[in-house]
Amino acid sequence: MAAAETDRDVPSALCSEFLNFSAKDTAAKWLQVSNLPKEVYQHLACYVPKIYCLGPNLNPQNEDLLAPLLLQSPLEWYLCGEEPSVGLAKLEQNNQPSQLCGHVFKVGEPTYSCRECAADPTCVLCMQCFLGSVHKEHRYRMTTSGGGGFCDCGDTEAWKKGPYCQKHEPNISDSSQKDPLANLSDEMIARTYNVFSIILKYAVDMLTWEKEDELPEGLEARGDTYYCMLFNDEVHTYEQVIYTLQKAVNCTQKEAVSFATTVDRDGRKSVRFGDFQFCEQAKSVIVRNTSRQTKPLRVQVMHSSVVAHQCFALKALTWLGQIIRYSDALRRILCQVGLQRGPEGENSSLVDTLMLCDSKMWKGARNVYHQLFMSSLLMDTKYKKLFAIQFAKNYERLQNDYVKDDHDREFSVTDLSVQMFTVPSLARMLITEENLMTTIIRTFMDHLRHRDLQGRFQFERYTAQQAFKFRRVQSLIGDFKYVLISRPTEWTDQLREKYLESFDAFLELLKCMQGMDPVVRQVGQHIEMEPEWEAAFTLQMKLTHIISMMQEWCASDERVLIEAYKKCLSALTHCHSGFTDGEQPITLSMCGHSVDTIRYCVSQEKVSIHLPVSRLLAGLHALLSKTEVAYRFPEQLPLSELSPPMLIEHPLRCLVLCAQVHAGMWRRNGFSLVNQIYYYHNVKCRVEMFDKDLSMLQAGASMMDPNHFLMIMLSRFELYHIFSSADCRKRYSRENANKDVVQQNNTLIEEMLHLVIMIVGERYTAGVGQVECSDEIRREIVHQLCIRPMAHSELVKALPENENKETGMERVIDSVASFKKPGVTGRGLYKLRPECAKMFNLYFHHYSRADQSKAEEAQRKMKRRNGEDSVLPPPVLPRFSPLFASLVNILQCDVLLGILGAVLQWAMEPSGGHWSESMLQRVLHLIGMGLVEEQQHLIGSAEDNDTNFNFTLKISRPGEAPANTPSILALLETLQNAPHLEVHKDMIRWILKTVANIKTTLECSASAPPSDSSGHSQEETVRDKDKAERKRKAEMARLRREKIMAQMSEMQRHFINENKELFQQSLEELDPSTSSTLEHSPSSCDSTLVCVGPRRWRAGGSERRQVVTCILCQEEQEIRTDGKAMVLAAFVQRSTVMSKNRKRPPHNPDKYDPLFMHPDLSFGTHTGSCGHIMHSHCWQRYFEAVQAKEQRRQQRLRVHTSYDVENGEFLCPLCECLSNTVIPLLPLTKTSCSRKLLLFVCVCCSSEQPDLSQWLNITSLQMKALLSAHRKAKAADADGVDDMDGVNDCPPPDGFKLDYTPKNPYSSTIKEMLTTFGTASYKVGLKVHPNEQDPRVPIMCWGSCAYTIQSIERLLVDEEKPLFGSLPCRQDDCLSSLTRFGSACWTVSSHATVQNHFIRLLAALVPDPRVENTPCILDIDMFHLLVSLVLSHPAVFSLDSSGLSADTAQLHFLHLVTVAHIVQILLTSIAGESLILPLHKALYVCFSRLREVNSGWHLWRCVKAGILPYLRAAAMFFHYLNGAPAPPELHSVGEWEALCGYLCLPSNLLQLFYNNRDKASLKTFCEANYLLILVASRCPKSGGDKSRAPTLCLVCGAMLCSQSYCCQTELEGEDVGACTAHTFACGAGVGIFLRFVHVISAGKTKGCFYAPPYLDDYGETDQGLRRGNPLHLCQERYRKIQKLWRQHSITEEIGHAQEANQTLVGIDWQHL
Predict the structure, then answer these.
(1) What is the DSSP secondary-structure string of 1328-1389?
(2) Which end of the chain is less packed: N or C, by CB atoms within 10 Å?
(3) 685 & 721 share domain
(4) pLDDT tens digit string along 877-926?
(5) C-alpha 926: how far from its chain's center?
(6) Which of 1136, 1173, 1543, 1514 is nearest to 1374 (CA)?
(7) Which residues lie closer than 8 Å to 1505 by C-beta, 6 or more apart?
């Protein structure tokens, strides 16, 4: 491929030309010429093609070196008139530093905004300014930047207070007001003007140049080479581009990925270099391959000179941005040059040209010139204003270009709107001078041309292109919001005029939305295709804050409010002009009242949920009351022209629609309608939808006769026929026809009553009721907390946000709730203060039905707990504003009382489906509301005597003849004794009591105030009766409980007596202190328990016997050597948890010899288990079933599961824990003595067994004999000559049978399982294919046993837990099985191989000249050596029949390795004081480089601390190997003497050295070079500035760039992401990474997300900084993640997470 060729060498003649070039001379020549532009262009024409684009691959190193020297340096010389470094330094020195910070944010950079002081949420600070400002002590929000904005520090309009940080604080002398050009000489200004105008003109011409093989005048094209240039778009995916490039330019996958990454980052990339035909061929292939489904990729064949000049144009703009930083004067000159009009007039400045060509440029060019605008025009207040005017003039054209373009908004010049429109002074100026608001609205309307016949927006038949356009045009709403974000404090006539003009345009927009997406009830069959509804709701959501802000602007000026109200009313009247056309007028009569209306059935006609004009009028109507304009200027308002029935019609239809949907009448209309109803009530939309509909009904009802209003309401709910008939109270006998219809009507009656409750009871809107905004928020919070205690984030989600993303919650939360901090898990919770519970309203209008039910239950429970009545009466409400005051009359109007009476009458009969509990509950609530209202009127009657609210009187009055229906009060008195209304009795009782109180109060106020004891006595009698009844019930419940408990206790005693023997036996087994075996145990002759050596504790027959149950077949099985094999599910994994050196490269698995583990433990093999036991044959059947199932599943669904069957993985059948092998369970090894001889052995063993030196001599002879025999056998196998010297000199010692083959004691199934687990450890630990004959198999098993014990010992230290007694059963069982397996695995391996391993291991401690390649003592981990020696020794011991004890050998191994470890510690420690010790001296003699010291205490402390982990691990090993119980002292933390005693070691370990003064062995420990290992594991790789997902490895601290093509690497022949590659180097295939969330990644195919350890002040995590609250590291949660790593539980966590959440399986974790 041509693009892959090497760059051409620059000819030597060109090099000499460059070397002879003088920037100073060139600048001097330019000063003399008359036509400077021509001269500069000639210079650029000569040199630019010689520097840029010389070959297929661009060479940034050469370009960055030559461009400053040949191109920029002459310009700087000319500009300064002297050496640039000197001239620019002078400019910088004389410059007054700007008070604006202007730091431009990169992608992902943190930004800070003050919730208290920011003018709006777009006002942000960079980290440096924030830390130096007053805002860090305030309530602030923290987010990450999307890139492109800049720091607002120093902008006084952006902050209510504290606009400056310490760095940008202005000086006392007000020099900033001076003209910055005053400091420059006229010559300097002229030169700067010349240079800037030429270079900016050149850059603008080149970046907007559209011809592919020509150049502007003065720049001639040279040569005949071309580039095939590929441009970025946001339509095609990475994969499409990579595939196309591979076909078009014949490149590799890696090269194609590199091209695609560059195209995405910079916006374009040359993919081929050569002659025109060669490049044209590639272009045609790319276009052909990408034009099938979408528009093709943009490709151009461009002359190399054009590309070269465009490259330098970008450099020139960057250079301009750098130069103007030296001085504000230079910045101002550049602004003048950029905004100066050209000869063409309008839109002819260079800035205009760039803006208007924005969509034609590639991404890299846009970024560069946007950055220049931000550092020049937007940093100079004078020119920012001029630029804003030009931007506003061209606004419509710029937006049209953006909508047609496909690049994201952050790469469009329209994104700069936020920098200007959010500045209040600029926004006001643009509104008044450029009519900006109207322009934005009209531009928006122009793009949404798809309308229906009535002129309403229609989104139903949107094409993909129209939908794409609709998404892009929404950005205009954002601009409109920016303009509105700060309300004017002072209005001018011009501002009023322009605002009202824009209000007209806004009403036109809302009129197009009024009634859009109408729905008709589907009858008969289900709707065939779900209609489009999301677009309309998206528009509604985007406009929600706009509508609220428009109302706030209106409210800030009385004249504007009055005019806006008139305009809105006029618009609504226009929308309703056809309101009654075709509708049949009818007259409704009920309870002696009649009203004229129209016949309209929501269930039959078209109805729409979108009514923004009605809702805007409702908002303005409430504002008339709130601002008192309605009372002060009634003559200016058209209140008399209002038609209340017209106002309420559409909102009422909407609410009836919701009621009918709930009643199930619209279920055939599908989910689209259900979703619309959901969002109608949702917190994001309800402020300008549901709430405003309710307000409009309240406004209409307040201007109507309440009887008329209720009759119209009944008609719309289609319930009028039920309540208007004369015998409506006998409904239960009339309606038996259709059960479904009856049920629907019941639900509609419930909904209608609920609506009445809301209309009368919802007074917490400022203007409707006499309340403040804070009262409304307080009530919202109270009702949310009545459901349950809630976290801060839950409360925030439940409250509506304003345009500044604030809920106002913090101002009032402390007055209604108390905060409870979280523990290690969970979140902090707010709990309602008890005194606020009285505000609870069961029919709160923002409750969903589920919320209402939960709140009711919670409140009743709380009342019962406090010993109060569980009744939930209506709360006391604030008073209505005068404009809405007549609403209370609804409660006492005849129609409502008729409805209430009818429902109560129906409730007299047990429900046959003709009334419902909810209906009755609502009726009782309404009666309660009337009583509470009357009580409030009575209290306030002293001030306001003309009250005429007589609710008690009206409910006491019976019906008139001929019906003579009983009064409501009489019905209630009857109902309180009805047995079928038990649940409502409390409420009925409360109502009757309240009625009595009111009557008493009325009588008292009517006559002279006599004693009101009668009322009290009646109330007290009722209360006493209630108390007595509750007490009686409680006493009965207590007696019943006691009787049951006594019966249970008696049954238990009876059972124990019958089964005495069984209980006695189980108690003895449970309690070792009562066990008879203890009397005969060795500890009776020695008070300490010992786990190793001849004196170790030995298990009796009953202790050895172990019976377990298989989890698969539930059969019990005793664990025996000759029985069926029982296995534990286990998971073997490579591990670096204990690693002290993460930089050690992985070993070559084929050649690596793992016999000696290095002390840095860089890689180990860990075995874990869930502890569940199975028969081996049951497990094999289960695993075969899993394999078969996986094969079937792969054919159906080719995605990864949480386990990989090909690698032997499966889930434990019981707990679904990830496993990949099984460990066989083995019994304790039998002792050679009978229990009767134990005491004798204990006393005499020390005299019979050899000491260390004797044992070493015997063992040495045995090893020599073995070595000779092995070499002889090897020679015989090779048929060679027997030339081994001295074989006959090494006869085996007495009792050592070289030709003896020990019998394998294990059954065939156990042997099979021993091989299975050994092979699994070998395969996983070395990452090789299984091979059970490999000599490394037993080594890997011993290593896994040692490594697992070491990691668990370290875990116990970290958690400060004792060595024994604190491990969970699963780990205890795992260690026990693993250790016993280690002692038995030699039986299924080649005995000669294991014997050879033993010889080599022993040679590391006892020198043997025959053994080669023995490592230095400092290169051996001593615990691994001890475990391997002890576990390999049985292969040698089995040949010995001389009577030597294996226990003695174990003890000698322990002593030898312990001494070696002490030497190791002394050689690698650096003494801090002058210390002396005989051992140290002995070492000093052997090893001259060790420092001589002269005091021993400190060194002994170092030795003790260094050897303790080894001793603890050894104690665990021998405990599990020999089954010796741990002494009680080791069940507490840190008992040195007990540990030494348990291991049969002296508490002063140096006695081991004194007792065995074998200096020769000491010398062998020191023959290698001295070694000191320093642990340093910092990975320096970083993702750079553009890393969108910087990620931190929590294991080693490396910074990585995740999920990015640029950082992919190849691993085992597959492309993987940086994090996945890092896990193999750092964590053996497992890792934990911190992004905004924790990503736990394992291997290439698995991973999951985990909660981060950062919490905000409310005890909650904030993944992705969505809420923006400041976060702090929670130590407890971090320790939890640490523990996950140390316990090797990451793969298990991932397995559980993937099983629980299948979406995690579909993620490409390998690209992380």
Answers:
(1) ----TT-TTHHHHHHHHHHHHHHHHHHHHHHTT--SSS-S-HHHHHHHHHHHHHHHHGGGGS
(2) N
(3) yes
(4) 999 999 999 999 999 999 999 999 999 988 888 766 778 899 999 999 99
(5) 46
(6) 1173
(7) none
CA–CA distance, 434 with 140 (Å, rounded to integer): 35
Q: In the listed set 144, 169, 194, which residue is the last one of a domain according to the structure?
A: 169
How far is the CA of 1554 from the CAs of 1500, 1507, 1510, 1550, in angstroms? 15, 18, 21, 6
The answer for residues whose C-beta is within 8 angstroms of residue 1569's C-beta and 6 or more apart is 1416
Question: Quick check: helix, strand or coil at residue 271?
Answer: strand
Q: At what angle do helices 1337-1358 and 1497-1522 cross, to 10 degrees?
A: 120
Quick check: bond before 962 cis, omega within 30? yes
Report the SS3 class of residue 1097.
coil
- 1533 confidence band (pLDDT: 50, 70, 90): low
Query: Distance between the two ends of the chain, CA-based, in angstroms?
Result: 31
Q: What is the DSSP string of 1587-1619?
A: -SSEEEETTT--EEE-S-GGG-EEETTEEE-HH
Exposure string for 656-670, b = 16+ CB within 10 A, e = fewer: bbbbbbbbebbeebb
DSSP annotation of 1159: T
Backbone angles phi, psi at 1618, to 5 degrees: -60, -40
- Report how far residue 1477's alpha carbon sits from residue 1498's, in angstroms, rounded to the nearest whole number: 10
- How many whole angstroms separate alpha carbon 284 and alpha carbon 3? 17
Residues 339 and 443 in one domain: no
Report the C-alpha gap between 1477 and 1467 in whole angstroms: 14
Last residue of a domain, one of 1565, 1581, 1616: 1565
User: How many domains would you assign to the chain?
Assistant: 5
- Locate 809 and state its tokens: 């919650």
Average pLDDT over residues 533-550: 92
Q: Domain range spanning residue 126?
A: 100-169
Mean predicted lDDT score pLDDT of the chain = 81
DSSP 170: P
In 3-state terms, what secondary structure has residue 11? coil
All residues at 6 or more sequence positions from 297 whose CB lies less than 8 Å from its CB, including other chains: 230, 231, 233, 236, 241, 244, 286, 287, 290
Q: Check whether residue 416 and residue 483 sit in a common domain.
A: no
Say yes or no: 134 and 201 in one domain: no
Q: How confident is the model at residue 499 (pLDDT cuts 50, 70, 90)?
A: very high
Classify residue 346 by its DSSP letter. Answer: T
Q: Is the dihedral of CA 676, 681, 682, 688 positive or negative?
A: positive
Q: Which residue has the higher pLDDT, 1269 or 231?
A: 231
Determine if the pTM surpasses 0.90: no
Q: pLDDT per residue over 1275-1321, tens digit each?
A: 666 655 444 444 445 667 666 666 677 777 888 888 888 888 888 88
Site of tokens 């933390």 = 1533
**Range of lowest pLDDT (78-82, 1216-1220, 1607-1611):** 1607-1611
The answer on 720 and 629 residing in a single domain is yes
For residues 1227 and 1376, the answer to whether their CB atoms sit within 8 Å is no
For residues 164 and 190, membership in a common domain is answered with no
Tokens coding 1359: 């958690």
Per the CB < 8 A criterion, the answer to whether 1320 and 1208 are in contact is yes
What token pair was written down for 1200? 């990864």
- Helix crossing, 304-323 with 363-375: angle to 10°? 20
Tokens (6 digits) for 836 = 């606020």
Find the helix or strand (DSSP H, E) in which 1640 lies: strand 1638-1642
- Looking at this protein, which amino acid is placed at residue 1420? I
Q: Give just the sign of the alpha carbon dihedral 110, 116, 118, 122.
A: positive
Same domain as 110, residue 81: no
Both tokens of 733, joined, read 């006998």
